[in-house]
Amino acid sequence: MRSEEFVVEPEQEQERLDRILGMIYPDFSRTYFQKLIKEDAVQVNGRKIKASYPVQTDDIVSVRFPDAVETVIKPENIPLDILYEDSDVLVVNKPKGMVVHPSAGHTDGTLVNAVLYHCRDSLSGIGGKIRPGIVHRIDMDTTGSLIVCKNDESHVNIAAQIKAHTVNRIYEGIVCGNVRQDSGTVSAAIGRHPADRKRMAVNEKNGKPAVTHYEVLERFGSYTYMRFKLETGRTHQIRVHMADMRSPLLGDPLYGSGKIPARFSGMKLCGQTLHAKTIGFIHPRTEEYLEFHAPLPEYFEKLLSNLKSQS
Question: Domain check: are 150 and 214 in the same one?
């Protein structure tokens, strides 16, 4: 069982306890924390409290997370597009539609199932049974480069680089609308959406700092081909920041319309048009800087060709 605690900040005062917990630990749902509160696994200032309790500044909230129920994840012979591999790390080009690790509704066919088969017993165990070797992730419908760690030493090293914002992560995407500025930076905190648990939102009050640098690569009238460099790595960061600029990613079902415009009739978008093009990091053993580039997927190339022909 894992125990954690945090102190309520002034800007969080009067928020419901279960809501604050969901903001602090976005990987868990509000319903999950309501269950923990009922089981007395959450206390405020050492006392049992209700989920609806309005937290006060300097309240000390302690949480006891129960051990996860062991889940057997089966290795699956799923082909991997490998950009690089050695005894410490594996860099793959994740395809569209593939979930990184098992979760409710996605128990097989994930990247973890594939790397378990490919790597056999050589994967970092720090991520636990559900996320062996996984040190970061990208959304199911986002394609591109992803690092998998083969041992705990590599996992700790790469995780520290990600935390220090020194991993070079560059994405390319097509957004709706004509982005006027050739380049710029979006610096807007991101947190859980107040009304929809599936979504994130710009949330300066309760969110975490998030910085995205962007550059326009080409304009196609009502669409813009862009490059994004992440300074931080919040959940759905690029998708949220671009939607906040009123230029959601083409095909994004959560932050845009998700609909296929008439000009792309006959084409399948299947989610946001976003690709993790480049990943660069210091190798955990050799200390050499490595950088890898995942080629644009076929659907993305077709979209660009379509846009150029119609412009």
Answer: no
Q: What residues make up the domain containing 130? A: 82-163
Domain final residue, candidates 140, 163, 186: 163
| Tokens (6 digits) for 77 | 């012979």
Report d(CA 33, CA 257) in Å as an integer: 31
Angle ∠(191,228,198) on CA atoms, nearest 5: 30
Whether 139 is a known active-site residue: answer: yes
- Report the C-alpha gap between 179 and 107 in whole angstroms: 39
Q: Classify residue 296: in a domain, yes or no.
A: yes
Residue 153: strand, helix, or coil: helix
DSSP state of 30: H
Per the structure, the count of domains in the chain is: 3
Note the pTM of the prediction, 2 decimals: 0.77
- Residue 19, classed as helix, strand or coil, is helix
For residue 131, what pLDDT band results from cuts at 50, 70 and 90? confident
> Given 139, 152, 182, 196, which residue is catalytic?
139
Structure tokens, 283: 């190798």
Residue 265 pLDDT > 80? no
31 φ, ψ to 5°? -65, -40
Domain boundary among 35, 65, 95: 65
Write out pLDDT tens, residues 20-55. Answer: 898 888 767 777 889 899 999 999 999 999 999 999
